[in-house]
Design brief:
Length: 96
């Protein structure tokens, strides 16, 4: 079975360029995502970093070693998001 990135239908030369890993290091403001959120809907302020890491994997035929910077940026983004949420909860800030 051929990988998704080596199939004849996929042309890497026309694929969009990967963003720099650090371009997605900071999470989007989580309040923006949580306002008006439906109860069962998953929200991820680091979705761009997640997408960039998966795009990297697709681009490099799932060679994980070539995408380690993207994975680290995603982890750093999630950590910053969680720290901000904790700080806001301690400060009594409400997100409706």
């Amino acid at each position: 079975m051929a990988s998704r990135t080596t199939d004849a239908a996929i042309d890497k030369t026309t694929a969009p360029a990967l963003p720099e890993p650090q371009a997605n290091a900071n999470p989007e403001p989580y309040a923006k995502h949580f306002k008006g959120k439906q109860v069962s809907k998953f929200v991820d302020p680091c979705a761009e970093a997640s997408k960039a890491s998966m795009d990297c994997m697709n681009h490099h035929d799932y060679d994980r070693d070539k995408c380690l910077d993207y994975f680290q940026v995603y982890r750093d983004c999630k950590k910053a998001w969680m720290e901000q949420r904790k700080a806001d909860r301690r400060a009594g800030k409400q997100v409706d």
